[in-house]
Amino acid sequence: MNSHGGLTLSATDGSRTFQVVDYASADIRERLASLTQGTTVRVGLTRISSRGDAWQVVEITDRPRRAAVDDALLRIEG
Fold first, then answer.
1. Cα–Cα distance for residue pair 7/29, rounded to 1 Å
2. CA dihedral over 13, 23, 31, 43, signed as positive or negative
3. Exposed site from 23, 24, 28, 67, fewest CB < 10 Å?
4. Three-class DSSP category at 26
5. Shortest CA distance to 12 belongs to which of 41, 47, 32?
6. In sequence order, which residues have a C-beta less than 8 Å from that of residue 72 and are 6 or more positions away?
């Protein structure tokens, strides 16, 4: 996580990268901040349309719970 709270996540197969700029809760942000580079995590993402290709993490889970959320298994990048 950079000094502004941004985070880069990449698909585990390397096919896609997500620029995370927002979190649905402080708990989600803190949990992701505590993980080290290279950790694999399953998250629910929603696109923040007003910020270009920016994303919000809405959940960290083993299974997606929200139909409107893109679920992805992603790796934390530097």
1. 10
2. negative
3. 67
4. helix
5. 41
6. 9, 11, 16, 18, 42, 43, 45
- For 57-78, write each residue's pLDDT tens digit: 999 876 545 544 455 566 666 5
Q: Give the CA radius of gyration of the chain.
A: 11
| Separation between Cα atoms, residue 39 and residue 78, nearest integer Å | 11
Q: How far apart are CA 40 and CA 9, in angstroms?
A: 9
Alpha helices by DSSP H, 24-75: 26-33
- Token pair of 2 as six digits: 């950079």
